[in-house]
Amino acid sequence: MSSRSMRTRVTFPIVLRELTVLRVVDVNAGTRRITVGGPQLGAFRSGGLDLPALRSEGFDDHVKFFFAAPGADRPVLPRQEIASLGWPAGERPIAKDYTPHRITGTEVDFDFVRHGNGPAATWAEQAKPGDTLWIAGPKMSLSHPAGADVIVAAGDETALPALRRWLHEMPAGTRAHVFIEIADDSRRQELPTAADAEITWLTGGSPTMEEAVRALPWPDGVVFAWVAGEAGAIRPLRRYLRVERGLPASQVEITGYWKRSGPLPEAADATEPEEDDDAHERLHELAEIVPGLALRVAVTLGVIDALDGGDGSAAAVAARTGADAGTVESLLRYLAALGVAAVNADGRYGLTPLGDELAEDADEYHLENAEAILDLAVLTLAAPRAPESMRAVFETDERLGGRARGVVEDLALWIAPLIMSAYDWAAAGSVAATGHGAGAAVNAIARAHPGMPLSLSAPPSALAVIRDQILDREHTGHVELVPTSGAVVVRDGATHLLVHFLDWLTDADAAHLLAEFARALPAGADVVVVEDVRPENDTDVEELENDLRLRAAFGAGRRTAERITELLGEAGLRTLESTDIGWSHRLWHLTRD
Questions:
Q1: Are strands 107-113 and 100-103 parallel, antiparallel or unpaired?
Q2: Is the terminal CB of the chain with fewer CB neighbours within 10 Å at N or C?
């Protein structure tokens, strides 16, 4: 289970905004600054929706710019939904991410590196005051890292807007070593800061960012490292910081902002394949099982970590992982065939760029994670097992249960602001919460209403995740965490909040627990229920996949809003109001008569 991040995260509804270019200024030969503004930077109404003002609270926030395809007059745009965007089924929008680095109530600055000839570069070169543009986001912000004694940051010119903003916003006295790679000295910028920051400009590629960071005498104290730039160039720094320096994931953020294109492949045969051949290839691709399992096995056994750490021979990998030498040899050969690893003339294996990506995201592919358990549960659809068994696994296995809780709470961060705006929490004297996503919601309530009595009931493994990963440090002592085996804990006088309570329950179990809860409530009690609902005509592949996993694991997939309303009514809860809050979620305000 991952440790608590040093950066607090807040999420926002994703809003598409139509803005206007106000100014275009060349900061230097390599950077063009474009200032945009317009009424839609503030709160506005569009398509029957009330949409909030732009918020950006993190130095490395990003928004999406939408660009027209060559020859087109207008970009393909997503559609605005309640708190997110819907992507068109046909032609996909052309969008790129950029960091806002100066924001006021009426205008925002974006810096564009002047290179390349794609849609974004072309737009930036041709932009002039009065032009219309569309942006979306930010969808979240991450704070300055709390608890860091020293910042080590490195980036190329594409990371300069984030570094510029970070230096400007760093608390006075923050110790920081910042390395910035630029093409030549003409591209330097003034970077005002109140921090105790040593800024090193790296010009002409010598030394590289990796060489410069390696040459830094390693500072004492807790180090937070942040690196961004061209994906291939920064990859060795991840290995240096995570493997050689041993920094935990919570103290390292490395982001590939762009990828350098390699040589173009030779022209393929121009003959169009027969339609049946296309169908056959697509079907074969969809039905492949072994590649995904092999990658997950390599992660789970520690083979990917061993290769990332430089143990290149099959014997060294086997010794480090404790796995059978023959198994390791076969696995390494297969990884090489997949392009995840490569073998040199001496028979030593190393990770390819694809393997580096796998190493960076290895936690997501570990077979002992809750996500993998849910994925493998799909196999039970062919030979069903009792759905209660999977729920019991998550409720009794502290590691798996905690991991599963962390995943759901992470998703709940996106709906927490929507829960806050859809109900008058200021009128609640106290709140008693439960459900798999209740931690994120309670944390949002604690932020907005300091001092309000709050309690949260969950299995012990889930409470550990909520305490250690979800609640802000200043709130951990003010939220009462109540161990429970599944029943909803009732508190006199409290508003009861249930978030993702029904996810892991069959209809029979849901009806029983809801009825038990309702019987214990005093008449007139306020209840708020928030659930992910299934649209009647859902066609989103990821949503349908998630529905299949939940049904396989727990015997019930996502329910329709009508079915949830029925379950609540049958339990004895009367719906006062039901509101679609976005991200396919609905909020019910209920009471017991």
A1: antiparallel
A2: C
Q: pTM for this one?
A: 0.78
**Tell me, what amino acid is at 532?**
D
Residue 385 DSSP one-character state: -
Q: Write out the DSSP string of 441-476.
A: HHHHHHHHSTT--EEEEE-HHHHHHIIIIIS-GGGT
Is there a contact between 416 and 444 (Cβ–Cβ < 8 Å)?
yes
CA angle 176, 178, 182 (to 5 degrees): 170
As a three-state string, the secondary structure of 52-85 is CCCCCCCCCCCEEEEECCCCCCCCCCCEECCCCE
Q: Cα 127 vs. chain centroid, distance in angstroms?
A: 32
**Residue carrying the six token digits 């570990």:** 366
Q: Containing H/E element for 231?
A: helix 231-239
* Exposure string over 390-401, b if 16+ CB within 10 A, otherwise e: bbebbbeebebb
pLDDT tens digits, the chain, 593 residues: what are they?
345 779 999 999 999 999 999 999 999 888 999 999 999 999 999 999 999 999 999 999 999 999 998 888 899 999 999 999 988 877 789 999 999 989 998 999 999 988 767 888 889 999 999 999 999 999 999 999 999 999 999 999 999 999 999 999 999 999 999 999 998 899 999 999 999 999 999 998 889 999 999 999 999 999 999 999 988 888 889 889 988 898 988 899 998 888 775 432 322 222 233 334 466 566 667 777 778 888 888 998 999 988 887 778 889 999 989 988 888 888 888 888 888 899 888 888 988 888 888 888 787 888 877 677 777 767 766 665 555 556 666 666 666 667 777 778 888 899 999 999 999 999 999 999 999 899 999 999 999 999 999 999 998 888 888 988 889 888 888 899 999 877 899 999 999 999 999 988 888 999 999 999 999 999 999 999 999 998 876 666 667 777 777 777 777 778 889 999 999 999 999 999 999 999 989 999 999 97
E strand segments, 183-326: 196-203, 223-230, 252-258
Could you give the CA distance from residue 558 to residue 544 in angstroms, rounded to a whole number?
A: 9
Q: Which of 543, 523, 524 is nearest to 533 (CA)?
A: 543
Residues 6+ apart with CB under 8 A from 315: 325
- Residue 547 has, within 13 A of its CA and on its CB side, a CA count of 16
